[in-house]
Amino acid sequence: RTTLVWLRDDLRITDNPALAAATDRGGPVVVVFVLDDDSAEVRPIGSASRWWLHHSLTSLAERLAELGTPLVLRRGGAERVIQELVAETGAGAVLWNRRYSAAREIDARLKTRLREDGVEAESFAANLLFEPHTVTNGSGEPYRVYTPFWRACRQRDVRPLAPTPARLSAPPDPVPSDLLGSWQLLPTAPDWAGGIRDTWSPGEPDALIALNDFVDETLVDYGLRDQPSRSVTSRLSPRLRFGEVSPVQVWHRITSAVPGADATVADKFLGELGWREFNWHVLYSFPQLAERNIRSEFDRFPWQSESEAGAEIEAWRHGRTGIPLVDAGMRELWRTGYMHNRVRLAAASFLVKNLLVDWRVGERWFWDTLVDADEANNPGNWQWIAGSGMDAAPYFRIFNPVLQAQKFDPERRYIRTWVPEVDSADYPEPVVDLALSRRRALAAYESTKAGG
Ligand code: FAD
Question: Where would I find the Photolyase/cryptochrome alpha/beta domain in this sequence (predicted)?
Fold first, then answer.
């Protein structure tokens, strides 16, 4: 009988446990992707992510066709759509790789419904290194701090890779599918995606090339990862976000290369994958990560309202704050859908601390403009910067974006790339005084603590 494989954040053929299990079952395989803008549990993806999704699905459809089965596209509330598809195809089983956001409630309900209807429903571990419910501290609780969390993870084995299907057979009758074009995931007028197109080529084949190139050529220099003008980070974040490559593949590729590479840089890199893992584990136990402060005393933090800070927020979004490192980052983001991590820290801290704007305003802008916008990493990092998050620094850290630039972009190569007018009269004065706004933020923090 036909097996239905429902893909979500795992747009790949290699190391895809659900797809591998479907192949093992024998019989026709129908692979479906559902664009779900309807279910309350699903956070609708932002504009840059939609661009990525379009191209990643195009690539996946080509790969699946080569293997022998088409990619079926459907739109709507996934719970209903999958059940309809089971009825249409007479599928005897539905397989998927697990997700860990609030959307997992959809999966749990669906699994129950399908089984009640006599259809097999099975889910697999695929998109994290470790299943969140299995990594707990001595009292069986999820870890709240990264370092012990990652130490515990490092003592465990990562699962082996799932085998890659050599062939998939299609059902005898074609299954109707939407056309990707009808989803309108790409911008029309204005076409803002030019810079993103020039920067990225979505899809699994390019993701695997990017992984190999990084490990073979760049990893040795990863110690320079904080310098935004050096291209020494992996740029795998959108690939991991859409599952064009799995963290397990990255893990095995890095650890098997370590004898040749420097173990310290490899550990540093794996530690960053560990932050991804940590944020997903946090989201698993705190599904409102993008909406609510983890530390509730921040509920009384005296943020400026969006209307009070409207002009400053606009200047921040469009890279016109008069603070070169922040402006360079915000322009890189707008143009390419990406921003270097060190600059994300500086730009986010500037918005939250110097402009005293609620972290959720920044989180939403990043959500819309990043190609790697990730349901756990984005709010997790914003809450970390705001100090409201799980593993917050013990003091109220305020990055100084001028000192950050001197330290990490001493020759101003990154800044000049994105803000060529930085040394001319055309460049604006700072929208705030850094020293004064720093004192204002510290006073706001003290009042928040005192109110508790
Ligand atoms: P590398 O240095 O090569 O790291 C490898 C992988 O590790 C990354 O691809 C990513 O999956 C993970 N990783 C690295 N740093 C972090 C981190 N600090 N937190 C969690 N995972 C990390 N990352 C996202 O993937 N999506 C987001 O939406 C996102 N939003 C962010 C918002 C803010 C305010 C900040 C400060 C950081 C955010 N990050 C986010 C984390 C980080 O900036 C990016 O993962 C990183 O810049 C991606 O580049 P890379 O793949 O070259 O990283």
Answer: 1-129
List the residue whose alpha carbon is closest to atom 42 of ligand 1: 341
Which residue(s) pair with 75 in the sheet?
Answer: 35
**In the sheet that 120-124 helps form, which strands lie side by side, from edge to edge?**
71-75, 29-35, 3-7, 93-97, 120-124
ipTM of the prediction greater than 0.85, yes or no: yes
240 CA: nearest ligand 1 atom: 11
Q: At what angle do helices 104-116 and 78-89 cross, to 10 degrees?
A: 30
Residue with CA at minimum distance from ligand 1 atom 13: 272
pLDDT digits (tens, 9 = 90+) for 125-184: 999 999 999 999 989 999 999 999 999 999 999 999 999 999 999 999 999 999 999 999
CA distance 445 to 158: 41
What residue type is 189 in one-letter code?
A
Pick among 3.90.1300.10, 1.10.10.10, 1.25.40.80, 3.40.120.10: CATH of 128-160+204-285: 1.25.40.80
Rounded to 5°, the CA angle 433-435-437 comes to 65
- Domain limits, the chain: 1-127, 128-160+204-285, 296-450
Residues 367-410: tens digit of each pLDDT:
999 999 999 999 999 999 999 987 766 668 899 999 999 999 99
Q: Which residues line ligand 1 (CB under 6 A)?
A: 225, 233-237, 240-241, 272-273, 275-276, 279, 341, 344-345, 348, 366, 370, 372-374, 377-378, 381-382, 385
Please give the CATH superfamily to which domain 296-450 belongs: DNA Cyclobutane Dipyrimidine Photolyase, subunit A, domain 3 (1.10.579.10)
372 C-alpha to ligand 1 centroid (Å): 8
| The residue to which tokens 């515990």 are assigned | 152
pLDDT at 262 over 70: no
Going by pLDDT thresholds of 50, 70 and 90, the confidence category of residue 322 is very high
Q: Please identify every residue annotated as catalytic.
A: 272, 275, 303, 341, 359, 382
Q: Which of 150, 214, 237 to mutate to test the pocket of ligand 1 (most atoms within 8 A of CB)?
A: 237
